[in-house]
Amino acid sequence: MPKPLGKEAWGTVEEVLETVREMLEMDIAYLSEFEDGVQCVRDVNGDADSFGLTRGTEIPLTDSYCQRMLDGVIPNAIGDAHSVPAVSDLEVTESAGIAAYVGVPVVLSDGTLYGTLCCADHDEKSLGGREVQFVRLLAKLAARAVEREDEAVRRSEARAHSAALAALLASLDARDAYSAGHSASVVALATECATRLGCSESEVADLRSVALLHDIGKVGIPDSILRKPGALTAAEWEVMRAHPEIGARIVGSVDSLRRLVPAVRAEHERFDGTGYPDGLAGTDIPLASRIVLVCDAYHAMVSDRPYRKALPWEVACRELEDNAGTQFDPRVVAALLSVLDGGRNPGRRKAPGSKAGRLVASQRPANRSSASAAVSPPSRPSAQSARPRARRE
Ligand SMILES: [Fe+2]
């Protein structure tokens, strides 16, 4: 029996469907969700088999009862489908044996069309305005139930996501405390950059995870290399260069993080296509990777390391500018410089005669370090060894 109308009675889509089907004495009630021209059955109650419907069934909206109802071609309630030409010609009327139908749109709180709430029967019915009014009321309850259920799923996924992030970061912290702490610091810069670049809330959320996890692959690098106090040899760099791929495999093994795999894998791709592991270039590199690369390099350069002191922020900013278009996405560099100029480094001033957007003098300091070296291993270790390195990796 359906639960009585009341505040606590309408917890689930299933309850709404059961109620509407029983009150209208129909064979079936179902809720469908629209996406890309298809209606997907989210839930169904009643004799689903005899209509060829089950949860997850996808039906093209073209030439469907629901589309014609939404277009106003047919009324919301049809008591005798064979007497209505606009549905009697539909193949499904015959194949599913539909004689009666009631359908109304389901609209979410923000006004977007979610799908439809429908009932159908193999026998003709006496259906009119009262039945349609009742189903419309139930459609509102269904919309609220969908929102509650989807929110619960989102919360559960968020909890799983946070737990997975925390576990992975703890493992990185145990192996390489600098990388773990550094990654956390990069998050704030990357977030501000992404916001300035117009990223959506969900893009920013994913970016924050990528910023935290970008170096997680270092857990797969041997201690002899990861914790080596001095410069790495060419052979050791080869091993170190595997960390984005290792990171992608680790992230890909966690359901709630799998969508981040391309960005984690591409964290050392360069804008000019000379990075690794895939040699992606320009906008083929995920935006999150391009943002993290710039913020990672900046933060590495202005951090003290056992093998060198932090570089002045002016030098670090100049490195970013000098490598914009080759190593870094120029838009991202401009966004970070704008962030830094917005208060983080209040002493920062445009250099006299500098171009708009160029925030420091073009002269390089004598002891400058390379931003490339800050985030990438050298392609020719012998040449690299002559230059101070802002960051090993
Ligand atoms: Fe890295």
Question: Can you tell me about this structure?
Answer:
This protein has 393 residues and is α+β, with helices and mostly antiparallel strands. The chain folds into 2 domains: 13-150, Beta-Lactamase (2-Layer Sandwich); 176-384, Hypothetical protein af1432, CATH 1.10.3210. The protein is 46% helix and 10% strand. The chain contains 16 helices and 6 strands. The chain has helices at 13-24, 65-70, 85-88, 91-95, 129-175, 177-196, 201-213, 223-226, 234-240, 243-252, 261-265, 287-301, 313-322, 330-344, 371-375, 381-384; strands at residues 28-35, 38-46, 58-60, 77-78, 100-107, 113-121. Strands 3-2-1-6-5-4 form a 6-stranded antiparallel sheet. Helix 7 crosses helix 12 (287-301) and helix 12 (287-301) packs antiparallel against helix 13 (313-322). The chain is elongated, with a radius of gyration of 29 Å. The chain starts with 12 loop residues before the first helix and ends in a 9-residue tail after the last helix.
List the defining traits of the structure above:
single chain; 393 residues; alpha+beta; Beta-Lactamase; Hypothetical protein af1432; six-stranded antiparallel beta sheet; 46% helix; disordered N terminus; binds fe (ii) ion
